[in-house]
Automatic annotation (TrEMBL):
Highest taxon, organism lineage: Bacteria
Protein's name in the database: UPF0386 protein
Any one Pfam family match given in the protein's UniProt record, by short name: YjhX_toxin
Species of origin: Neogemmobacter tilapiae
InterPro entries named in the record: YjhX_toxin
């Protein structure tokens, strides 16, 4: 599966324990905020990127914030330091 650098970066942060909080307008998601494992906000994650990750099944939610799925963990490339 082809995953862009931005998608890889978001998946790495989610794999380390981060999560994505979403806001509804009643029927659909209108805004998202991606948090790293230490509580910082990841500005690289936007709504179109979130939609791509969700449609591919790389992230999912079970009654709470979105987190990485097993498929997402298998798809993300190993990297020693993802701060770059």
């Amino acid at each position: 599966m082809n995953i862009s650098k931005r998608e890889q970066r978001v998946l790495h942060h989610l794999a380390l324990g981060g999560h994505i909080r979403h806001e509804f307008d009643g029927k659909r998601i209108v805004a998202i905020t991606c948090f790293t494992h230490d509580g910082a906000v990841l500005s690289d994650c936007d709504l179109p990127l979130f939609q791509r990750l969700r449609q591919r099944g790389l992230i999912g939610a079970k009654g709470g914030p979105y987190r990485i799925t097993l498929l997402g963990r298998r798809s993300v490339r190993a990297q020693l330091d993802n701060q770059g």
